[in-house]
Amino acid sequence: MYETRVLSGMRPTGSLHLGHYHGVLKNWVKLQVEYTCLFFVADWHALTTDYEKPGDLNQSGLDMVIDWLASGVDPSQAILFVQSQVPEHAELHLLLSMMTPIGWLERVPTYKDQQEKLVDRDLSTYGFLGYPLLQAADILIYRSKFVPVGEDQVPHIEFAREVARRFNHLYGREPGFEEKAKAAVKKMGTKKARLLNEMRTKFLEHGEKEALARAQAMLDEQQNLSRGDRERLYGWLEGGGKKILVEPEALLTEAARLPGLDGQKMSKSYGNTIALREEPEAVAKKIKTMPTDPARVKRTDKGTPEKCPVWSLHLVYSDEEKKKWAHKGCTTAGIGCLDCKQPIIEAIQAELKPIRERAQPYLDDPTLVKNIVADGNEKARKLAEETMREVREAIGLAYT
Ligand code: TRP
Ligand code: SF4
I want to staple 211 with a disulfide (CB 3.0 to 4.6 A). Which of 199, 286, 345, 395 is the partner? Predict the structure, then answer.
């Protein structure tokens, strides 16, 4: 049976901040309970843009993993690994590169956008052009069904779907496919075989998507199918060849966007962050010095919360009653900005306390993190190897 796999990667940026926590990590923590999750340090991806000054990728990766763990990502539920330690990603990337038209890569929106934005470096490189294909390999090598990403990454997932389709189209055809598929259906028993045939006809002749979904569910439940047969039947249901690679779907998170201290997006490069391991005093200081509505020069000046980044934090952290209090106090000059900020300081300190505590053992003993990642690398390699065996065989590179 295919379990439903979820995969996501993050570039190694060192220690993380509250924006990562609200935008990404809280979601990962939820997903790990429901699915087989693979979360990885995308260290090769960092090189696609930062090859001139990569810094200490190893250390930044481990620091980042500490913050995943501190946020509640659980290595007994999810597989945490490092991309470069699973070299099969590179092999799949290479093989896919043989069949990926350059035009597809040039048309990925981030290609031109990033080249225009990151003017301080030369991004007219082979690696940077191929970066979405590397990402496709990351995803496809685990037959991931869902990929939690931000809006900006959606075209990359769409690209990965197209690559998977092309690969299956080119290499999913095998001699005697129809016969093999029919033999596989028979193995499911007469009753199920009839049902499956009916649903396939409904889909192929009348385009009934529901029938296809039901047929796929039947395959998922069927215990006695080999992986090869399952791939054949998946393809056969849709009138095509074997489905060796799975087409992934983006999983968009509708997380409340946590603004930075200046009201812009929270980002290290803007210097407006609160780190996940920020000490309580530092949190207080950062919030206390946050800019507010510039109209409130004196305590008696009335303000407009909508023009104030502190208000945005109330929207994330405060209940209705607190929000009402802040809003009214601001617009009537009933409270000062420091009063208004106090509940935010407390809420963030309370949120960060358990995170800091969970990080501590890993900071005291870094071998703990290294072992978690080593274990994850091994598990990931095993899954990647399963896919690669079939990929090599389909292309004719099995050498057995
Ligand atoms: N490209 C992603 C980013 O820059 C990171 C990434 C690499 C990724 N491979 C991935 C995300 C695979 C999801 C799935 O943020
Ligand atoms: Fe901002 Fe609150 Fe001050 Fe109003 S009272 S300007 S919302 S910090």
Answer: 199
Which residue has the least CA distance to atom 8 on ligand 2?
A: 337
The preferred substitution site among 262, 290, 293, 324 for testing ligand 2, maximizing ligand atoms within 8 Å of CB, is 293
Q: Which ligand is nearest to the CA of 292?
A: 2
Residue 262, in any domain of the structure: no
pLDDT tens for residues 174-228?
888 888 999 999 999 999 999 999 999 998 888 889 999 999 999 988 888 888 8
* Nearest ligand to the C-alpha atom of residue 343: 2
Looking at the structure, tell me whether residues 249 and 233 fall in a common domain. Answer: no
Q: Is 93 in the pocket of ligand 1 (CB under 6 A)?
A: no
Distance CA 344, CA 325 (A): 13
Question: Residue 254 — pLDDT band, cuts 50, 70, 90?
Answer: confident
As for how many domains the chain has, the answer is 3
Ligand 2 geometric centre to CA of 311 (Å): 6
Those residues whose C-beta lies under 8 Å from the C-beta of residue 27, and which sit 6 or more positions away, are 148, 253, 255
d(CA 177, CA 361): 54
What percentage of the chain reaches a pLDDT higher than 70? Answer: 99
Domain span at 283: 277-364
Shared-domain flag, residues 294 and 215: no
* Beta strands 36-41 and 5-10, pairing class: parallel
If asked whether residues 252 and 288 sit together in one domain, one would say no
Atom number of ligand 2 nearest to Cα 326 = 2
**How does pLDDT run across 98-112, given as a tens digit for each residue?**
999 999 999 999 999
pLDDT beyond 50 at 380: yes
Is the pTM here over 0.70, yes or no? Answer: yes
Q: Is the CB of 9 under 6 A from ligand 1?
A: yes
**Is there a single domain that holds both residue 15 and residue 74?**
yes
Task: Look at residue 42 and tell me if it is in a domain.
Answer: yes
Q: Which atom of ligand 2 is nearest to the CA of 290?
A: 8
pLDDT at 299: 93
